[in-house]
Design a protein that fits this description.
With 139 residues, this protein is mostly helical. The chain is built from four helices and no strands.
Length: 139
């Protein structure tokens, strides 16, 4: 075997493991970024769900506090930023109703957020019945 062939073989013995290591690092980094992205989006949408739910089921004639209004505004902004197109459409419908009537029914939006988040988190699907969106309030 000549020196050139030996050098070529040694070159490939070094290059192939190096390329495999670089590709493995790149794939792991990409997966880490995807997981972090999902984690951030899930956190914001869970907070949006909680903020909307916190303002619901207060009874007729009960006004929202300034903090609750700010919570709904933030929740809608988060849904518009991080939500799916169907979530954004439901948020828009809810806010249009709130603006027109000073009240609105967020159950479609909450049900969609709940089901999409449960799916993302690997949890079993919840009921699609809107009456299952319960706003429990301690008096």
């Amino acid at each position: 075997m000549c020196a050139a062939e030996t050098t070529t073989i040694e070159f490939w013995k070094i290059l192939i493991p190096t390329l495999i290591a670089i590709f493995s690092w790149w794939a792991a980094k990409k997966k880490d970024l995807q997981n972090k992205r999902k984690e951030i989006i899930s956190k914001y949408l869970i907070d949006a769900y909680r903020n909307i739910d916190n303002c619901c089921g207060r009874g007729e004639g009960v006004s929202l506090t300034a903090e609750q209004k700010k919570g709904i505004e933030q929740a809608i902004a988060d849904v518009q930023l991080f939500g799916s197109s169907s979530q954004i459409a439901l948020a828009k419908k809810f806010i249009e109703s709130m603006n027109a009537n000073s009240s609105g029914d967020p159950r479609n939006l909450l049900a969609t957020l709940r089901n999409d988040l449960r799916k993302e988190l690997g949890l079993p699907a919840a009921s699609d019945d809107l009456n299952d969106i319960v706003h429990w309030r301690l008096l």
